[in-house]
Amino acid sequence: MPALRRTNRSRHDFRLKIALAVALVAAADFLFFGHGPGSTLGLFAMLMMAVLVVTVPAVLRKRRSVIALLAATAFALALIDQPGFLAFVLFGIAVTLSRLLVRRRFDNAAIWAGRLALQGLIGPFTPLIDLIRLARLGRGGARSRLVTIASAAILPLLGGAFFLALFAEANPVIADALGRVQLPDLGWLIVHGISWCFILAAVWPVLRPHPLVTRDLDIAPVEPLPMLSLSVLTLTLSLLTFNAVFALQNGLDILFLWSGAPLPGDITLADYAHRSAYTLIATALLAGVFVLVALRPGSTAARSGLVRRLVILWTAQNILLVASSILRTMDYVDAYGMTQLRLAALAWMGLVAVGLFLICWRLMFGLSARWLINANALAAALVLAVSSVVDYRATVAHWNVRHADIAGGSSFTDLCYLNQLDASALVPLIDLERRVENPKLRAQVRWLRDTALVRVIDRQNNWHSWTWRNQRRLRRALEMLGNPAIVSRPSALNRNCDGTIFRPPQPTAPAASAESEATGSALPPPVSDERPLTQGSAQ
User: Could you tell me the CA-to-CA distances from 377 to 44, 291, 524 in Å, in that order?
Assistant: First the structure.
């Protein structure tokens, strides 16, 4: 009897997962098909977590699963505020971890990274795998019942359709009713079917992960990198040499880059500061790898006081090298402006500095390789979590506007790049328009501002693409503009990406039109598509 109860409960749980997975697919089709994602993406994430809790109640009984579920909730709230690829990926990782941690404890971040990668590879095929399993299990009674039902329904269906077709020929009322029935377009069905398959391939693996993902890998704890067999003397001489070379580079950086001392010869500060900062970061990473492969905690070399002091000094010099790379990047930003890539590079440099510090800390206190992996994974996860919430595009736009040379003319900043930042640049563009005094430049900025404002209003007037962050941004922008009742849609004709008017080269006039040119006739002005745009619910 207990085995029968478990079987019946398993079947009930499986059917419940199927029903709720179909409901999620239908909800995703209603929320996203044919529309760009808005806060609806966060709403779908919340629905997915609710389905997980209902179908797998064990996620609320395991503390480790609850922690991952809370992290998934935080990322879902970030998606409600503003949908983003990073927040979406982190939500997927967190909700998957919440499900997998029901079966396995979290021990090693490297092993769990492999589990997540395996889930990503196998997951999309789990619906097909479970369908094949059902087909194999249904070869007995279930399959025979299905065949019996199908055979019993064939004659009524075919016979009813045949007589209905005859009555349609004899009765115009039936013929008219059948003529009003419109079958769905085949292309529409194909596109929707593909969309449903993609959604099911993303949802089903979370509800029913493949057993291979959480299988015991039986991996013995090993060092992350192979160890070098170096004597204490060799390590001491190597560290003395490395410290001396790094001291030369850091000393020059302190003298010229940090203190601003005059450079020798024809070398300018721009030449010195704008040399590749990424090369210095690569040097620091190589230094960290050397410490990992050459010094094992608890080894004879690691117990040497001189070696430990030299490693600490070298790590400090590497961190200073990273700080100099950050300063180089900031000097480059001051000269050429901030971009999302440069901002991400600064965050990466900070992570490198943290990683170097953690390597030194591990050596000093004899910590395990698993501790080092988990600590670095935690640091990276924190940076990614913050990045999923912060609007880096708006940060970049505010930076460029705040540091713009207003008196420098039209080349003071990259207006095309601000245009690419879309809604995130709306409030900075309004601030920039207030500060610009050049009439021509102000007209460019005004056109960019109007374009961004109309884009935001259009999105907010559509509930599919509505977002909480854009609503706050729009309210702030309208307050700065005096809350206008009507917003005019700017003309996009003959405009470059920076708002300047594009004047195409005039075609060569034929000889027959020479007389008209002599009389002073001009080409007709371009047609404008300016028209008022009512804010509607966006205000």
Answer: 28, 19, 64
